[in-house]
Specification:
mainly alpha; Glycoprotein, Type 4 Pilin; binds calcium ion; three-stranded antiparallel beta sheet
Length: 168
């Protein structure tokens, strides 16, 4: 016991006791976790802004598409399991209308997979639009509805859960 106490109060070559060192290290850990917390909050905010910006662009590309073709791209299937195919379909349709294509070009490249796939590539290599969490976007539209629905699986990367985000 006497020996332990002697160790605690003994100063090292920098002039700190073990207790002082522990306090400083604890403070560093607390500060670091605060910084990580703030950083992850900023990251979550940036991703939310990212998906909202993508929806704004896709919505206006869809408006241009309707002006040009007099209808929205139809995608009747309601099955998130095929979201990749729905996303490819949406991209290809918008890409086929010049004014929609120029809006599509404004979407952050990091959110589009296979953007530079060769023309005539199999559908699996066609461009797909992703959300900032790395999940492909789902697209559906049944004629008669006011506007197409585009769905992001949200931060949990799973469709059909409470954190899903859509363009409506
Ligand atoms: Ca989700």
């Amino acid at each position: 016991m006497k020996r332990a106490k002697a160790m605690k109060t003994r100063r090292n070559k920098y002039g700190f006791t073990l207790m002082e060192m522990l306090i400083v290290m604890t403070l560093i850990v607390i500060l670091a976790s605060m910084i990580i917390g703030v950083a992850s909050h900023i990251d979550a905010r940036a991703k939310k802004d990212g998906i909202e910006n993508t929806f704004v662009l896709l919505d206006s590309a869809l408006q241009e598409y309707r002006q040009f073709r007099d209808k929205f791209p139809e995608q009747l299937e309601q099955n998130y399991a095929n979201a990749a195919a729905h996303s490819e379909y949406l991209y290809n349709e918008l890409n086929s209308v010049p004014d929609s294509r120029s809006i599509l070009e404004k979407i952050n490249n990091s959110l589009i997979e296979n953007k530079y796939a060769a023309a005539g590539a199999p559908i699996a290599a066609s461009p797909e639009i992703y959300d900032p969490w790395g999940t492909v976007l789902d697209y559906r539209y049944t004629p008669g509805e006011n506007f197409p629905l585009i769905v992001s699986a949200g931060p949990d990367k799973k469709f059909g859960t409470a954190d899903d985000i859509d363009n409506r």
